[in-house]
Amino acid sequence: MTDDALRQEPDLTALKAKLLVWGRELGFQQLGVADVELGEHREHLARWLDAGMHGEMGYMAEHGDKRWRPDQLVPGTRRVITARMDYLPPEVETTKLLGQPDKAYISRYALGRDYHKLIRKRLTTLAKWLEAEIGPFGYRAFVDSAPVLERALAQRSGLGWFGKNSMLLSPKAGSLFFLGELYTDLPLPVDPPFEREHCGSCERCKSACPTGAIVDDKVIDARRCISYLTIELKGAIPLEFRRAIGNRVYGCDDCQLVCPFTRFTRASPEPDFAPRHALDRAELIELFAWSEEEFLERTEGSAIRRIGHQRWLRNIAVGLGNAPWSPRVVDALEARRNDPSALVREHVEWALAEQRRRAPTLLAHG
Ligand code: SF4
Ligand code: SF4
């Protein structure tokens, strides 16, 4: 008997039913099973890379075939179990905060503890429960990992469709969720791909994008996207985007917040995703005053930490430049005029010039 035939021995349909129940017990809102046929995404990705839309994210161009060939990334992979975990904490403001330019807007996924560890741990527990049921099998868990086309896998496993904002949209849950994947050699029954695209004639995300980064349906020019500019970009934020960034100091959610499907978002029960240090409503001035030690201490275990203190100050300086004129804002910026980082100093000068431009006439000329 071949290995494959031996593998058929467990009742895979019954096993999959258990898997779905266990997934919910572990806090996932939805699971699906995809095959490993991702070839159709190869051309789309190649065109995007050729156009240079990935900016400085060189890792997007790496890994070759491993992206659309899960069996090359993890040899023996036959299925990918995809898992969705909603992240919006209860009772946090979203769009209202964007209208309060003295406050900092941090992408709502980044308010609490870093999700990577939590989701990987839960996926590994799921694999261990499967192992206890059927014996050893091959698996590997991924969360937001460069060589994994997670949205494509989620679409293939029936979790949702690609919205025009390029996010994976669930008809039941919008798009404010994390995705994780368990690559496995178990030939579980697959779910049908989510074929129907429900965007229809809606264009809300495209009109709402502050920097015009959605250059075509499902195509984001990362070099214009505020998430990229505030998180991935290491150097100076191009002048042409600084005003449009407003008070968004870490990421941007606009194209998701305006999406009609976002109304189906359900609050996450995970305590790990709850905002830390009142980051859901903090004032720009308050965050700008954090020393490097305070930054490191307060962002420990948070996704924000990876941008480092300099880029944190760079981003907040842009926010302060866009804030209404006030002596407090000017004082806060003045206090960082001699910051050791040239990057920070340049953004502070820009912000001070913006503040002066907005100052009451008497003071501006006085
Ligand atoms: S995240 Fe913001 S900047 Fe990026 S595409 Fe969406 S709306 Fe535009
Ligand atoms: S805002 Fe409209 S077009 Fe954009 S992703 Fe949502 S439904 Fe689709």
Question: Can you put this structure into words, describing what you see?
Answer:
- The protein is an alpha+beta fold and 366 residues long.
- The protein folds into two domains: 3-92 and 112-184, no CATH class; 223-365, no CATH class.
- Helix content is 40%, strand content 11%.
- The chain has 17 helices and ten strands.
- It has a four-stranded antiparallel beta sheet with strand order 1-2-7-4, sandwiched between helices. A two-stranded parallel sheet has the order 3-10.
- Helix 2 packs antiparallel against helix 6, helix 14 packs parallel to helix 16 and helix 15 (327-334) packs antiparallel against helix 16.
- The chain starts with a helix and ends with a helix.
- Bound molecules: iron/sulfur cluster (SF4) (2 copies).
- One iron/sulfur cluster binds next to helix 9 and helix 11.
- This is Epoxyqueuosine reductase.
